[in-house]
Amino acid sequence: MVRADDPLYVALHEDGRSGDGNHMSPTQCDYEIKYADGASTIGALIVDQFSLPRIATRPNLPFGCGYNQGIGENFQQTSPVNGILGLDRGKVSFVSQLKMLGIITKHVVGHCLSSGGGGLLFVGDGDGNLVLLHANYYSPGSATLYFDRHSLGMNPMDVVFDSGSTYTYFTAQPYQATVYAIKGGLSSTSLEQVSDPSLPLCWKGQKAFESVFDVKKEFKSLQLNFGNNAVMEIPPENYLIVTEYGNVCLGILHGCRLNFNIIGDITMQDQMVIYDNEREQLGWIRGSCDGSQEAPTQAPSAEEVVGAAARREASQATGSYLAPPLCIGTDIIGCKVEHSDVLMHPNTHGSWGVTHDDRGVPHSEAIIHETPNRKVGTARQPSSPAPTGAAILCRGVGAPRHFFITMNIGDPAKSYFLDIDTGSTLTWLQCDAPCTNCNIVPHVLYKPTPKKLVTCADSLCTDLYTDLGKPKRCGSQKQCDYVIQYVDSSSMGVLVIDRFSLSASNGTNPTTIAFGCGYDQGKKNRNVPIPVDSILGLSRGKVTLLSQLKSQGVITKHVLGHCISSKGGGFLFFGDAQVPTSGVTWTPMNREHKYYSPGHGTLHFDSNSKAISAAPMAVIFDSGATYTYFAAQPYQATLSVVKSTLNSECKFLTEVTEKDRALTVCWKGKDKIVTIDEVKKCFRSLSLEFADGDKKATLEIPPEHYLIISQEGHVCLGILDGSKEHLSLAGTNLIGGITMLDQMVIYDSERSLLGWVNYQCDRIPRSESAITSRL
After folding, report:
1. Which of 74, 200, 221, 456 is 20 to 30 A distant from 661 in Cα terms?
2. Mean pLDDT (whole number) for 658-671
3. Confidence of residue 196 (pLDDT cuts 50, 70, 90)
């Protein structure tokens, strides 16, 4: 701990960012930092060792230990980073401390961010040891904004360079002028403005864009002129992104409450940006930042930077720092604009706290998103007028987490995150009708209109009640009312019809689909945010999305498949176009079962010919269940053989006696366990064997398909006792998402077959007859 009488305390508060200098205790240096969107962080200053590349010693450096994070307007439930690397001009900044300790001789910092991912950060100018890190914060004063080398006719704008901001933010006047100029300067009439949940202003083409370079020629460059021949060129690739929907979007946003303009990461890509506090200069130079060239051993000289600017028609140069240091929040600059939808970007190593989904099945709160400008897969044109299927990019995976797609619903379309659930019949959204006892979800609630209601006499209403196994009961003939009972809750709503937009390579293909408008969720404790808006019902009923797509001719066969990658990402496909022609293990499905059931299987441990289940187990494949659930006897048998193996072969693992927040049965090592690979050798594979006459189909369940690592660093059993989880399954066993990782699982209702094959799920298979959609 840094004491309140330490010089570091004085230096921190002299920097003007950390409150008024009042402290709660003389034994510690307290601070409070407030950010642009109302967020704040309260903490204490501490000193600890830092490990730095190319530095043999481990210097002791001060940094903040934030223990109270105040929620701001742009709050996100999880973050992709652990904290902030402060690189501004203050006395306690990272660079100032390195200079004070003699690790570098000059207060110079620079970064180079590659548009292809990665990059470098350097500290010092080469006179001392050069510190290379991964990329992360100054003002060259005022600049005049140009579009296509013509002034936009405004007063000079104050500019700040902030590598902690993903996008570039302009204040109201330059933002509106920029938007007007870009729209007026578009050289092609083939671009159409479109609504995209990623960013406020987007355009689509005749087919999905793969990268900015597909559409760069349609846009013109911006320029910032700082005077003295210091001009920053901003080509289209430095202010545009291509989203996962195949649209191109403006990466310059409206910084509503700001009185200065921020140059963020998008505009600093593919150039080295240098902040020289010794000479009070800021410079930039175009170059490769992706590691294809050897990393520099020292910073470029001023002559190199200025010379490059001259050779590039003064498009880059140095300028003086004219503005005072500013306290700027990282990744929270700007504000919500009314027409902007916000996507959440939780981190890869999210919380493993367990909640329960609407069917009573535990799942993790943590989800994973890919960033909006990372496109995966290839958009393809169907080779025939009647497509046989659609492949849809999915997000939110990992072991074990939500597996969901983004579905665009309504007219105009709005985005919703739907949990892919092969165990539910009805697709439904929470509705603002108004909504009672509703979950806190990522997007605005769906707003129904009277003309969207399905009447009680409609055949869709009859089909819904057939799927639910109940007699039809409507409160009014003008609408189809329903109540769905789950294990620990219920959902009351009405059936509605609206447009589902399937973004395909041949343009947006809107399809009218019936789904539930749930206006009363009968469950207590609804105030906890959940990462999905609702459920995508994909079981075998008549009103499932798959059945409706087939009845409308969007697909020709009732075939469904999904592939969940343990690395992140995955895909869902409809129709049989994506089904591999070989290598799939097939087993018959029970034609009469409303769920996807391969019937009964025998459970084996470590390839032992003798089954550990007392009798064949009734099995259901359910992607909506995060974990796998066994009935009482097979669960106890599994737990017994797993513990027995650990006791004899891996005694360094001991069972956790205190309750882990993730799961019931966990083990800990001498140190925190980070990955399953560290302990995989201590566990054995399980297998489920399904008999079809003389043929046998075996589902292998290796340790990585039934174990997770908890936030506490424990390894936990991802197979749960269904009898204790209040699942009314009458002894049925659920194969959940954790056990389906890294496999393509195929539900073929046409042939009543269920299949699986090991697969690289972060890549969508190509098919000439399929529509590859990005939802």
Report:
1. 74
2. 85
3. confident
